[in-house]
Amino acid sequence: MQNPKIVFFDIDDTIYRKYTDTLRPSVGEALAALKQRGILTAIATGRPPVAIPAKVKTLIQEVGIDMLVTINGQYIEFQGKTLQHYPMVADEAAAVCNFLAQQNIAYAFVNNAEIAVSEETEWAKDALSRIISSYQVDAHYYRQQPVYQLLAFYTQERDSEIDAAVAQMGFKTVRWHENAVDILRQEGSKARGIEHAIAKLGIDMKDVMAFGDSFNDVEMMQAVGFGVAMDNGEESVKALADYVCPSVDEDGVLRGLKDLGVI
């Protein structure tokens, strides 16, 4: 695909290295080149707006990124204004939280502007330290504020057990840390958020390109017109992609766009 109308980029390990706080200059060069061609640029991330890294926020402002699809597609902004959002039903959030509490699993609520944890366990503190510097402690946050996604803090050994239980409540999990998962409605995903948002702009999914690397990018890779996986990405994501570009550490986004003839 040489002429997409909009290109979406995941953040962590696609344009930005979370564990080293690295954003290579080539990312800004790539985004600026897309803008010069009149191609819209967008972020598609599991993070809420409040947890977007400072270096990426600066990039968004400097380059003028058009759209932010955040919280795995649950909260979307276009040119600085809310375009679409999918808050959880309070009773459903309560049911999942009650189950997690019964299992002695700490959890967190994700709002566009803040994160609140049920309790500060070591696993919760470690996982959240990777994405945000401060958060509230409030086990009943959902009673006062919109919640777009839950987080739960447990090891991979419990994945099958927890997956089955939350599935019966209409939810799914997506692991993003050795001790943490996202929990969202089964129909929720970056793909749904992208599809609904671009429809409001009169763009078809066949004209969308997306770059990603991890498990929460699977539906996006399947749905867009052209999916690009990072070479450092999960094998399951690379298997779904139309093209695999070099890793994030090797200027993958810039090199991929050039190799594909987009810029």
TrEMBL record:
Highest taxon, organism lineage: Bacteria
One of the record's GO cellular component terms: cytosol
Keywords for this protein: Hydrolase
- Name of the protein: Cof-type HAD-IIB family hydrolase
Q: Molecular function terms in GO for this entry?
A: magnesium ion binding; phosphatase activity
Gene3D superfamilies per record: 3.30.1240.10, HAD superfamily/HAD-like
What Pfam family is a match for this entry? Hydrolase_3
